[in-house]
Amino acid sequence: MKTVFSPVELKHAPKNEIADGQLRPAVEIPSRAEIVLRTVQERALGEVVEPLDFGSQPLHRIHAADYLAFMESFWDRWIAEGRTAEEAFPYVWPIRSLRADPVPEHIDGLLGRYSMDAGTPIGPFTFEAAKASANAALTAAQLVKDGGEGSAFALCRPPGHHCGKDFFGGYCFLNNAAIAAQWLLDQGAHRIAILDVDYHHGNGTQAIFYDRPDVLFLSLHADPRHEYPHFLGHEDETGEKAGTGFTRNWPLPLGTGWETYSEALEEACRWLHVYKPDYLLVSLGMDCYREDPISKFRFNSEDFTSLGQRLKRLGLPIVFLMEGGYAVDALGTNCVNVLDGFKRA
Ligand code: OKP
Ligand code: ZN
Q1: Which of 80, 138, 211, 292 could pair with 54 in a Cys bridge, judged by C-beta atoms 3.0 to 4.6 Å apart?
Q2: Which neighbouring-strand residues pair with 251?
Q3: Assign residue 44 a region: left if phi > 0, alpha if psi is -120 to 50, beta otherwise?
Q4: What percent of the chain has pLDDT over 70?
Q5: Alpha-carbon distance 49 to 317, whole Å?
Q6: Residue 259: CB partners within 8 Å, gap ≥ 6?
Q7: What would the pLDDT profile of 270-325 be if each residue is shown by its tens digit?
Q8: Contact at 8 Å (CB) between 216 and 316?
Q9: Helix and strand counts by DSSP (H, E) for the chain
Q10: Is the CB of 121 under 6 A from ligand 1?
Q11: In 113-214, where do the E strands start and end?
Q12: Whether residue 287 has its Cβ less than 6 Å from ligand 1
């Protein structure tokens, strides 16, 4: 299986995040990608290739033009305003009785208008890295579509699944899975399924495709009653309008291990069999791991191998896209366990 990765993804190097009422060391850091890359090479998963540049058009198929313009120009504006902080955080949001429109002119208003949380810093190279990450997703999709590869791994960083049409958050700035899904549809595919196995609900991906039947979104995750993103990912969210029935969520209790998880996974697999997608995209987070510093599931490293083996049995062309996973020392092992389990099954 080929891996797609660009060193440009490492240029997003957040220092801190706001968590638990404190400025804490960031967990979504470049060493995550480095250890996964190293393990891919050590375990000889397959060739590592650099992404092609797909330009801005595939980004515009998912994200709002004003959001992309904001992301593109943000750092220059931050500097032009005379800000000296090494990274920017939003702190005020247009909730309910406030107005999302008109879009503010002030930089702090813009940050709030285009974000969902205060845990996601933007630095000087954030958007450059996010575009490289999206290009990795697109290149992996292209390898599976045209390259005679039954599967490919997009080593994406920063991740994407919390990012919506016009907001960043949850360490995500472009929705890599959504961008790749739409690209495959634009290339002639009829149906795409996205299976999100990150510990956190993929709220951005869900929202983007909520009213569409051409993308089936399935997510297994920690119950949002007890976990980030808190405001989406409940069992009763099943899609709307033409997309009714094309979103499915399996919110699972804190402490969930492979035994419980794999039962929910079997249900998700049944939906995949019925839907018969042309391609399956897997939003692959490794944060279900028992030692993950911000998560509360109980996967062992071997459980990730079982996950890969189960996905192989689906018999579908698959694009794996990396999302979360913050136990850096074990991240390479856990990620390559999925991919190698898939490859060898
Ligand atoms: C991104 B991905 C906990 C703070 C959690 C946001 C988590 C984003 C996860 N105190 N902050 O889905 O792995
Ligand atoms: Zn996560």
Answers
A1: 138
A2: 221
A3: left
A4: 100
A5: 19
A6: none
A7: 999 999 999 999 999 999 999 999 999 999 999 999 999 999 999 999 999 999 99
A8: no
A9: 10, 10
A10: no
A11: 151-154, 192-196
A12: yes
Helix axis angle, 65-80 relative to 126-146, nearest 10°? 150
The CA distance from 95 to 305, in Å, is 42
> What is the Cα–Cα distance from 81 to 197, expressed in whole angstroms?
40
Q: What is the pLDDT of residue 147?
A: 87
Of 20, 162, 227, the one to substitute when testing ligand 1's pocket (max ligand atoms within 8 A of C-beta) is 162
Contact status, residue 235 vs residue 205, Cβ threshold 8 Å: no
Closest by Cα among 307, 61, 335 to 192:
61
DSSP tag of 52: P
Q: Does the beta carbon of 21 sit less than 6 angstroms from any atom of ligand 1?
A: no
Could you give the CA distance from residue 169 to residue 112 in angstroms, rounded to a whole number?
11
Q: Determine what percent of the chain is predicted with pLDDT higher than 90.
A: 99
19 CB near ligand 1 (under 6 Å): yes
- Residues 148 and 168: their CA atoms lie apart, in Å, by 34
Choose the catalytic residue: 161, 162, 200, 201: 162
- Atom of ligand 1 minimally distant from the CA of 287: 13
Nearest-atom number in ligand 1 for the CA of 200 is 12
Let me know: does 256 contact 297? Beta carbons within 8 Å.
Answer: yes
pLDDT tens sequence across 181-197: 999 999 999 999 999 99
Confidence category of residue 343, pLDDT binned at 50, 70, 90? very high
Q: What is the pLDDT of residues 73-97, one digit of tens each?
A: 999 999 999 999 999 999 999 999 9
Strand partners, 192: 215, 279
- What pLDDT is attached to residue 190? 98
Q: What is the pLDDT of residues 247-270, one digit of tens each?
A: 999 999 999 999 999 999 999 999
pLDDT for 159 equals 99
> What is the torsion angle, in degrees rounded to the nearest 10, for the CA atoms of residue 200, residue 204, residue 206 and residue 212?
-170
Q: List the alpha helices (DSSP H) in 197-327.
A: 203-208, 258-275, 301-312
